[in-house]
Design a protein that fits this description.
6 helices, about 190 residues, elongated, five-stranded mixed sheet, alpha+beta
Length: about 190
């Protein structure tokens, strides 16, 4: 429910566009993706094309929290098996910020997915507070690096050696001296 502090009485409802026969770009739920364009103009073409492609195979789910006629939060999700991947979530700024519309949409989405029998809503990498409060499963991530050339093997060996040196007690003891010297020379920024 939306807090009573709204200027006029209103009811919040979550709407999801998952119908394969509907065009995702023509639904009002897709509108927040267009409003995202000025913030990240380099990523917008990707999401516009991905919206069409993922929707065509039934893997896209666009959700929005709608109050009256206004969409105050939206989510661009991908579905595969029993998992929904929350790729892009946004919320309206201005007066709606104080109502945490993005959090409300997230909680409504979690409830709906649980009722539908889906296993997970993956929010991706990061330990932001809003993720930690709504998660009961933590999946450790792994990194794989495949080296295909002699030059790549040499670079990987150099990286490993550099990491081993950084773990030495003597190296760690010299760090304050290094930063003091760099600051004196006007080159160091320990915060960077």
């Amino acid at each position: 429910p939306i807090p009573r502090a709204c200027a006029r009485p209103c009811v919040g409802a979550m709407r999801c566009c998952t119908l394969p026969q509907s065009s995702p770009s023509r639904t009002p739920i897709a509108r927040p993706l267009a409003t995202w364009q000025p913030l990240y103009p380099d990523r917008y073409p990707y999401f516009r094309r991905a919206t069409t492609l993922f929707h065509a195979v039934g893997a896209l789910e666009l959700c929005a929290l709608q109050v009256g006629e206004e969409i105050v939060a939206s989510a661009w999700n991908l579905k595969q098996g029993g998992v929904v991947y929350g790729i892009l979530m946004g919320f309206e700024a201005g007066e709606w910020t104080k109502f945490s519309s993005g959090r409300i949409l997230n909680l409504m989405l979690l409830r709906r997915l649980k009722e539908a029998g889906l296993r997970y809503l993956a929010h991706g990498i990061g330990d932001e507070g809003w993720k930690l409060t709504s998660c009961d499963t933590h999946v450790p991530l792994r990194q794989m690096l495949e080296v295909r050339s002699l030059r790549g093997r040499a670079m990987l060996a150099a990286r490993g050696l550099k990491q081993q040196v950084r773990e030495l007690r003597a190296w760690k003891a010299l760090q304050p001296v290094k930063w003091a010297l760099l600051r004196k020379l006007g080159r160091g920024n320990p915060a960077a």
